[in-house]
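Lay summary. Proteins are chains of building blocks that fold into shapes, and those shapes determine what they do. In this project we predict the shape from the chain. Here is one chain we studied, written as its sequence of building blocks.
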Amino acid sequence: MKAFRPVKTDKISELVSRQIKSAILNGSMKPGDRLPAERELVNYFRASRVSIREAVKSLETSGLLKIKPGSGIFVSEISPKPISDSLSSILRIQKISINELTEARIILEPHIAKFAAEKITSEELEALEQNIHEASARVKSNTPCPAQNIEFHSLIAATTKNQVITLTMKTLLDVVKEMTLEIKNHLQKRTEISRQAVACHRKILKALREKDSQRVYELMLKDILQVQGGLKIVTSRSK
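And here is the predicted shape, written in a compact code that computers can read:
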């Protein structure tokens, strides 16, 4: 029948990689742990050296293992950066527009900021204040500061201590940062956009200190819409 296809047995290397991956994900093997030597893995899995090497190579490619010549095979320190970078690249390849990014941010960021108001620490408030200080210095010298202003939003996302939120926002904000840094013309307007953002960030910081979650929500929404409006003007003039 056309609906059926021949059954294929999984490659031995895939079965080996699944077991090693499972051990890493369930915590049996932790970052920094050294895997047994290749000959021991051959005995454990009753597989050929070729299959073991293929399994290890695939896990290294996925970022779960790290091969150190002369030292052995180790469980990698897992970082969300490669994932975030890959997702950011996908969004850029798909020609995501500023409007689409703004819509996503409107749905997510005000709620994230509202949540942050309940959890933020004094150290995190200090980091936000330092960020605003650096951004203000650039604006005073008539220099746009998109990188600092975007970092402000990343810092707020990080205060949630939620890895899903942090990774999602890092991905979105990395794309926003790349798109804004690519705009080279209209220095005066871009500086004005940064100046307005810094002013709004000061108000957000004040509301965070006061743990006024509703005020934080409203200000974050205003900030996103305000910046989007300015960027639409700048990008339309550049065409």
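What the prediction tells us: The chain has two domains: 12-75, 81-238.
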